[in-house]
Specification:
Strand order of the largest sheet: 3-2-1-4-5-7-6
Distance between the termini: 22 Å
Shape: globular
Order of helices and strands: HHHEHEHEEHEHHEE
Largest sheet: 7 strands, mixed
Oligomer: single chain
Helix content: 25-40%
Length: 229
């Protein structure tokens, strides 16, 4: 693996502006997808949260369940040009990601399953993936991902957490809708609770922090940051 690229510390931006969002969206095919990209990057708080962590400690990024590669473009727009590998089981989304990033040599995408992760040392990102796995597979993935976190780097997770709340109920409805419109191919298998997230990460020697990542959404999403000292 090559030495990690550096983020430009002099760049004051913490989020892409409207012109940058248009530029990113323009790299994707079709008006519908371009609108989705622009809206998602402009409104979803997880990208800024992940970018702030990665910019504070630049290191290679392994993005598990990367979809069409939105985090990669978000980081790139902030001049955080770290080496990035995105993997996803959805071959169609990987093809879109590869096409959109064809001009960026440091951004790579691979059609692969999360149960066979590549060798890696750096940051590891898992956004909105865990609940599509069974409870056992979640534990296996968290353990494998933690092993790939370099000293000073972090495992960055966004996950729905099982709870008796209206937010959790709304989240389940949203997941059903995404499946109906065929944007998500996979059914929800298991929503983890806090202990199921915490145990494998602490066992791997990571220091874990958890906080709500609702922003203006009604969803029961949390940001989990597990750092290796």
């Amino acid at each position: 693996m090559s030495a990690p690229r550096r983020c430009q510390a002099s760049d004051p931006h913490t989020a892409p502006d409207s012109a940058q969002l248009l530029s990113i969206a323009g790299q994707f095919p079709g008006r519908w997808l371009q609108g989705y990209v622009r809206g998602k990057l402009g409104s979803d708080p997880v990208y800024q949260a992940a970018a702030e962590i990665i910019r504070a400690h630049p290191a290679p990024v392994l993005d598990i369940g990367c979809g069409i590669g939105l985090l990669a473009h978000y980081l790139d727009s902030l001049n955080c040009k770290v080496d990035y590998l995105g993997i996803d089981l959805d071959a169609g989304k990987i093809r879109i990601a590869q096409q959109a990033a064809s001009r960026h040599a440091h951004l790579r995408f691979l059609h692969a399953s999360c149960d066979a992760l590549p060798a890696w040392q750096g940051h590891v990102v898992i956004l909105d993936v865990l609940h599509y796995l069974t409870a056992d597979l979640q534990q296996n993935l968290l353990t494998a991902a933690a092993e790939r976190v370099a000293p000073g780097a972090s495992l960055i997770i966004r996950s729905v957490i099982r709870a008796a709340s209206w937010r959790f109920a709304v989240t389940r409805l949203e997941e059903a809708f995404m499946r109906c419109v065929r944007w998500m191919r996979y059914r929800v298998q298991h929503y983890p609770d806090v202990a199921e997230l915490e145990t494998p990460l602490r066992n791997a020697g990571l220091l874990m922090e958890l906080r709500p990542l609702w922003a203006r959404t009604p969803f029961n999403s949390y940001l989990i940051v597990a750092r290796r000292p």
